[in-house]
From TrEMBL:
InterPro entries tied to this protein: Glutamyl_endopeptidase, Peptidase_S1_PA, Peptidase_S1_PA_chymotrypsin, TRYPSIN_HIS
Signal peptide region: 1-31
Highest rank taxon of the organism: Bacteria
Keywords, alphabetical: Signal
Pfam families noted in UniProt: Trypsin_2
Name the record gives this protein: Trypsin-like peptidase domain-containing protein
Amino acid sequence: MKRTSRITATSRRVALCAVVVLAATSASVAAADEAAGPFGVTAVVGATAESARVGALFAAGKAGSLSGNHFCTASVVHSRQRDLIVSAAHCIDGEGDATGLVFVPGYRDGQAPYGVWKVGKQYLPDGWAHGQDEDSDIAFAAVDELGGKRVEDVTGSNRFAAGVATGATAVTVTGYPNSREVPVSCTNKPVAHSATQQRIDCPEFTGGTSGSPWVNGDHEVVGVLGGHEQGGATPDVSYSVVLGREAAELYKDATGG
């Protein structure tokens, strides 16, 4: 089931334990933010410099009433133009409404602490554009300037890193479940699902978390939640395309490199 939709039956089965899982201690949250563990624990993310780089996507028509209207996750990655976000292709392509999309970095409880940024030009890989291949479920988009500033100058960024071996290090996944108005985060070590897909075991990554960045300890995005089953059919197992040649070429196109 696509992660832009609410997961129903499976979510209900884990709902009773969700409160316990998400009530991790502040020490656990800090450790997860540093990609050092504890592994496989999902917790609410505090407002930090790192979490400011991750935001929620909304239909532009909802920009005046953010609370409860986000549907996917995206994050700021470094580019020469300092205006680039990365997400899943199924979040960028055809979502939103006739007015387009907006990106709200650091979104929390209906508030936009770093502004509401209009999503402009989109970059989709050929494999997605010509058949929605799950092995091509990644996309970039440029966001327009806001108040004369570019998004990376306001929030900072992570580096985009294609070609990193699956499971080389633990990663921290941060995203926005549709059912919550704050981001959650989990650290674990990815494993190979196939030659083109990687998976990670983290509880309660439900609808809305598609597009969540997988960030290693070097502040590199080495995965983006999506791909197989558009991110996963259960809330406890998530997928990402293995970021290889196609992802590298797409990033080059998006940055004009």
